[in-house]
Specification:
- The chain is α+β, with helices and mostly antiparallel strands.
- It has one domain.
- About 20% of the residues lie in helices and about 35% in strands.
- The protein has 5 helices and 11 strands; from the N terminus they run H-H-E-E-E-E-E-H-E-E-H-E-E-E-E-H.
- The protein has helices at about 10-15, 20-35, 95-100, 125-135, 185-190; strands at about 35-40, 50-55, 60-70, 75, 85-95, 105-115, 120-125, 140, 145-150, 160, 175.
- Strands 4, 5, 8, 9, 10 and 11 form a 6-stranded antiparallel beta sheet that branches.
- A hairpin with an 8-residue loop joins strand 6 and strand 7 (about 120-125).
- Helix 3 runs antiparallel to helix 4.
């Protein structure tokens, strides 16, 4: 236990194993709290992490979900601190995106959390909409994208995917507003 009563400090948490498992565990609780019964896949051959089940009247519906986890970092220095409170980034290759695009019937849950613990920051995308968002992200020369998702400093309810690595204003050329995907559990009912 650390001096502040925490069992694991930030450095120990970062070394504590596969971060995707943390994201999947958080997602299970969030889906359950929103009326879905989550089940983990025993074999991840289809890149599906969770199967969700829900009964609506006499019908049982299922949804398949891939979960991604990203650490949230505070924006405390540099050019981004005037625009964003925190940000997360992750790399997606063209190959990853192409594989996701083939599965038109799945959803992607993107769980974001700082070292201090999960604060409810979760995005839920129909997979093809997620693929479209990634294609708007910062394109790298090695056939991959660096996907930054950042919280607005001026309006903390707004979240943006960055289209460029550096800029001085939130414009349509610089960012894509992804706020509608924040805790977007309703998209599971619309499929």
């Amino acid at each position: 236990m650390t001096n502040d009563g925490d069992f694991l400090g930030p450095a120990e948490r970062r070394k504590a194993g596969h971060q995707e498992i943390l994201g999947e565990t958080i997602a299970k609780f969030e889906f359950f709290q929103n009326g879905w019964h989550p089940y983990s896949r025993f074999l991840d051959v289809d890149k599906i992490d969770l199967i969700l089940r829900r009964r609506i009247e006499n019908a049982v519906i299922y949804r398949e979900v891939q979960v991604k986890f990203g650490k949230l970092y505070p924006c405390e220095t540099g050019w981004s601190q005037s625009l964003f409170t925190c940000t997360s980034w992750r790399f997606f290759s063209e190959k990853n995106i192409a594989a996701l695009a083939k599965r038109t019937d799945i959803f992607l849950a993107y769980v974001l959390s700082p070292d201090g613990g999960f604060k409810g920051d979760m995005f839920l995308f129909p997979v093809l909409e997620f693929v479209d968002c990634v294609k708007c992200a910062v394109k790298l020369g090695n056939e991959s994208y660096r996907v930054f998702i950042s919280q607005s400093r001026s309006d903390p309810k707004r979240w943006y995917l960055r289209r460029k690595s550096k800029f001085s204003a939130l414009t349509d050329d610089n960012v894509l507003d992804v706020t509608d995907y924040y805790r977007n559990f309703r998209c599971l009912n619309e499929a």
